[in-house]
Specification:
Structural class: alpha/beta
Helix content: 25-40%
Shape: globular
Number of strands: 30
Largest sheet: 5 strands, parallel
Strand order of the largest sheet: 3-2-1-7-18
Distance between the termini: 68 Å
Number of helices: 15
Strand content: 25-35%
Bound molecules: flavin-adenine dinucleotide
């Protein structure tokens, strides 16, 4: 018998959001009845680990099964019903119709509180040949087992991955690990379209270095098949054919909202179930969490879908607590903080990219720095690119993106924390970060980006976007002659090369009345040069953001 202090909590979906909700509900209320419905065979498995199991980097399948139904029953007294689909919600009667796949029967299940965590389904466009054997999407254990079996049985070892979001990129890496010759096809002009082009470019390079053929700006038109309807490759929209016996579609996801919308729950403009800060839908006894719902996106304050594991786990935990006790902390705004490894490169982001800000009409400035991930004099130093996006007047941090071989995770996490706490670039400049030579620099890349941003806010320095049209400007290259000869600045044929250490002596070669842009390797010597020119009467001087390194990635 349920009572306010011992509610019946039914949870739909037993993985990231659902399992978090169930276990938190139990920890907060020993007397609740908690029923977890999962339409598939497994609960609480590690979705994020699936590509690494396919590739063999995670060797044991068992390791993916984070918590079994037996464990959830034993430790948390949760009634886990796998192969049980929630098929209908009757909000007036507060019951759920549940179909038991084993018996075929449908039965009513009463709830006091209902938590919807049904996740999302891979997007599969209606493609000719899309139903062929060996065309896969990756979402759950069954998909994983099928892909692994197909990969093991594939003699020619040729694969094509369509779509270069996080899952697509991870599959590319893992298929190469399995010895496949891999082609990646992406409709957008760059891989990982969420990030700005200069952050994505090193990922292109890493894939090419590892033998991957990358097609950008060219999506899939159809799957090519043999007379047994098995995939033999794909045809791209350009008409080019790519031979492959394994086709992986990583084209994003659509939220599973049918159950919610049939029950009259509000679906937000982004297509996810609308919720308040306690993850309650427009029916206060029904919560929604995870890929199926909307969250408040921190930098804009707008509701949107963010299909990531962190928010799903945190929202599940809060909803479980709220359902079990009637209260919880509110869900903090979500930033879309994410990270991906592509061979020897890692890219990550949090908050807004510069391109997203422009698309949304949000005033934003960006600075890009290229600096070693730890002290340059310590073995193993490698450059990391960090792009910081901030509000032009207040300096409030709006987003950050980074790419490098090492140390991307810590910078992105520091900056995600800054965003959460609504810090400004001035706060970043004063952060007291851990430093010893193997780990960082006394001036961390986070500081360098913040210093550049503060210089801009203070009017000490103006940046020019790395891909700007330089015609009509006096372009001053302040790298050494040898550096310029080795890697000329892209699309700057009339650049005047005056190394920074000669600049004071050679000012006469320049016209102080002209709009001037200085460029160096990564922007550091450009800063020094810009300060020299400014203080010698050059009124309009800009530093090319990220110097030749960044411009040459994107122009
Ligand atoms: P899920 O974890 O998908 O769980 C939903 C469950 O609900 C499913 O098991 C489904 O079968 C069940 N269900 C649906 N409808 C019903 C119904 N009517 N009745 C009963 N059960 C139902 N995110 C990251 O942040 N980092 C990563 O590295 C990362 N890597 C990923 C790699 C892969 C291959 C995949 C697929 C996802 C990855 N994600 C990653 C995304 C992350 O896994 C999801 O954001 C997260 O799992 C969403 O949690 P959820 O609870 O909303 O959905």
């Amino acid at each position: 018998m349920s009572s306010p202090s011992a509610p019946t909590i039914v949870i739909v979906g037993g993985v990231a959001g659902g399992a978090s909700a169930a276990t938190r509900a139990r920890r907060m209320n020993e007397h609740a009845e908690i029923i977890l419905l999962e339409k598939d065979e497994h609960v609480s498995f590690a979705n994020c680990g699936l590509p690494y199991y396919v590739g063999g980097e995670i060797a044991e399948r068992q390791k993916l099964l984070v918590a079994t139904p037996q464990f959830l029953a034993r430790r948390f007294r949760i009634d886990v019903r796998t192969r049980h689909d929630a098929v209908h919600i009757d909000r007036a009667a507060k019951t759920l119709a549940v179909r038991n796949q084993a018996s075929g029967e449908t039965y009513p299940l009463a709830y006091d509180k209902l938590i919807l965590a049904p996740g999302a389904a891979p997007l599969v466009p209606a493609l000719p040949g899309g139903d062929a054997a060996n065309v896969f999407t990756l979402r759950n254990m069954q998909d994983t087992d099928r892909i692994k079996a197909a990969a093991d049985g594939c003699r020619a070892k040729r694969a094509v991955v369509v779509g270069s979001g996080y899952i697509g990129l991870e599959m590319v890496e893992q298929l190469v690990r399995l010895g496949f010759q891999v082609t990646l096809a992406e409709l957008q002009p760059q891989v990982l379209p969420l990030v700005d082009p200069e952050i994505a470019q090193p990922l292109h390079d890493a894939m090419r270095r590892h033998g991957v053929t990358v097609h950008v700006g060219d999506g899939i038109k159809r799957v090519l098949t043999d007379d047994r309807n098995a995939a033999t490759g794909i045809e791209l929209q350009s008409g080019q054919a790519v031979a492959a016996e394994l086709v992986i579609l990583g084209l994003g996801v659509r939220p599973n909202v049918a159950l919610a919308s049939q029950a009259g729950l509000t679906i937000g403009a982004s297509g996810g179930i609308a919720t308040n800060e306690y993850q309650q839908t427009n029916d206060p006894d029904i919560y929604a969490v995870g890929d199926a719902c909307e969250y408040v996106f921190g930098p804009t304050g707008q509701a949107q879908r963010i299909a990531l594991a962190g928010p799903a786990n945190r929202a599940g935990r809060l909803a479980g607590e709220h359902a079990a006790t009637g209260r919880s902390l509110p869900m903090a705004p979500v930033l879309g903080t994410s990270i991906v490894r592509v061979f020897d490169r890692t890219a990550g982001m949090t908050g807004l990219s510069a391109r997203q800000a422009a698309r949304l009409g949000i005033p934003a400035c960006s600075v890009t720095v290229v600096a070693n991930q730890h002290a340059g004099y310590f073995p193993g130093a490698v450059p990391l690119t960090l792009k910081l996006t901030f509000a032009p007047t207040t300096g409030r941090v709006l987003g950050a993106q980074a790419v490098g071989a090492d140390g991307v995770d810590k910078r992105i996490d520091v900056l995600a924390t800054a965003l959460t706490l609504q810090a400004t670039v001035r706060d970043l400049a004063g952060l007291d970060l851990a430093y010893a030579p193997p780990f960082g620099s006394a001036k961390d890349p986070v500081h360098l980006a913040a210093f550049a941003a503060c210089n801009q806010l203070d009017g000490l320095e103006e940046f020019l976007d790395a891909d700007a049209d330089l015609s009509g400007m006096q372009v001053v290259e302040v790298r050494t002659v040898a550096e310029v000869a080795q890697t000329p600045l892209a699309s700057a044929p009339r650049a005047i090369n005056i190394p920074v250490d000669e600049l004071r002596q050679r000012l006469g070669e320049l016209d102080p009345a002209l709009p001037t842009v200085v460029s160096c390797g990564v922007g550091l010597r450009g800063h020094v040069a810009a300060r020299i020119l400014k203080q010698h009467g050059f009124a309009d001087v800009k530093n090319l953001s990220g110097g030749a390194t960044i411009r040459n990635r994107i122009v």
